[in-house]
Amino acid sequence: MGNTQDSAESGQKNRIKEVGKQIVGDRGQIAVKLVFALLYTLFLLLGDPDHWRALFEKPIYELVFLVAGIWLVAFLVLSILFTLLDLGKETDTQQKRVFSWKVFAVFLAVCLLCWMPYYLLNFPGWVSNDSVWQLEQICGMKPYSNHHPFFHTMLIRIFFETGRGIFGTISAGVATFVFAQMVFMAGVYALILADLYRGNVKKGFIILGLIFYALLPVNGIYAIGMGKDTVFAGVLLLFVREVCLFVEEDRCGKGLVITGLLVCLLRSNGILIFAGTAVGMVIYSLLRRKSRKMLICTGIVLGSYLVYQSLLLGALHVTQPDTVEGLTMPIQHMLSAYMNDGELTTEQTEFLQEIVPLEGLEEYYNPSFFDLVKNHIREEGNQEYIADHKMQFFRMWLEIGLRNPVQYLEAEVRQTYGYWGLRVETPLYEQYRMAENPFDLTVQRKVFSYDFGLWADTFLQDFQTFFNRIWSLGLTTWLMLGCMAYAMYGRRNILPYLPFVMLFVSLLLATPVYAEFRYTYGIFVAIPLLLAVTLKKTARKEA
């Protein structure tokens, strides 16, 4: 009897040890969870820019205990969450579905049908200030510029000129492009959902994905919004799809080249997104000794991009963005040191004075919004001085940063916290209204008359308020990084996550505003794909 009881107690202890071991994981899994737990800890500590500096005023032992405590809690939460997600069984025995064009057509039709009221009640679509400038270029009122991607301007021109040529009005030209954009985005979402169907993802999840794309008002607004953000988000999804096909089926060809090049051409940060992803794909190919095709594809994209930037745009007399446009972070870093009582030498202060007038700078300096200072430099400063002294500019940036690390950190936090802080509210479609324009474009009702205030101030505003209560840009980032962490935990390929990581990194390097939904719209619309790629058949096989 005693031996039986001892054996039962021993078995129970062994089961407890096994559960504990499964929750903690092996060394590699522990390392993954510790790294991401530290990342989330930093997000939590720095996510409130009005209070984070108080952390440095605490005694060092209190700060250490605070960080260690949050880190430990984050580690345990990740451990339990990953263990729960990893309890299922493989379903490889399930008969694989085939790609169905009928399924694709149904998804596309549902999206278009759900977006059509947005289109007909706001005909010809919503034209942003950026798009007004692009239309002025198309109509010969302004010189060509690559400030907003010239490729996107020419894409607008194709459909705009077609619609205006057929129907004879500028409004019809805008409406033609907007409708083409709607069809394109509906096609992208339908293709992603049809791929999930082919990949044996549960039908309930696919239906939720269709609801996400077709019924969320933010997707309807972006579908009729005439801006580069919408098309770029669709192209980014197609590029990630090609990356997934490369990982799962070893496919590497024209699809990857076309979508990769479009990513580079449709946003200024697209080249960083593609280059960072391409580096990961080349390394992966080298490790598998199958690098030739990947190197060729990467070379074609980068070579084509360089030819486009250096030769084609020059031949077409397209002006490039000015110097200050891409220097948000280094200038904000240095100005933060100056405005927040940092230590600057006389030489460093004089160098800043050459670029931006420091007297009265407090009227323009906003630690979370760079455009005011940027325009002040354009009007009253001397951005050409930066172009003529590039090496000195970056030397000064480095030297000032070494003397003022806290001020630099504050500048980085305040300029970017909306993209990783959990509870930061942000307008969803502030850019997407019918902006003032020289074309007399106005919103027209093509179905029935209605109170525009009921639409804009009640329906759209109520959804935005509800959205900000349950979601945020930071939560989108947390979810994306959490999916990547889970993939690493399961020792699976992380290449499909790299484009989104690089998009996030590009915002940390150069965003002009602390929180702008359209800048991360490409990650937001990828949520169904991210979840499906992460959670589909990730469970461990039974021994």
Structure, explained:
With 543 residues, this protein is mainly α. It is 68% helix and 1% strand. The protein has 24 helices and two strands. The protein has helices at 2-24, 27-46, 60-85, 101-121, 129-138, 150-167, 170-198, 203-215, 217-224, 228-249, 254-266, 270-287, 292-315, 328-339, 346-355, 371-380, 384-388, 390-403, 405-416, 452-470, 473-489, 498-510, 521-524, 527-535; strands at residues 126-127, 225-226. The protein has a two-stranded parallel ribbon. Helix 4 packs across helix 9 (217-224) and helix 7 runs antiparallel to helix 8 (203-215). The radius of gyration is 26 Å and the shape is globular.
Topology, element by element:
Layout (H helix, E strand, L loop, with lengths): L1 H23 L2 H20 L13 H26 L15 H21 L4 E2 L1 H10 L11 H18 L2 H29 L4 H13 L1 H8 E2 L1 H22 L4 H13 L3 H18 L4 H24 L12 H12 L6 H10 L15 H10 L3 H5 L1 H14 L1 H12 L35 H19 L2 H17 L8 H13 L10 H4 L2 H9 L8
Parallel strand pairs: 1-2
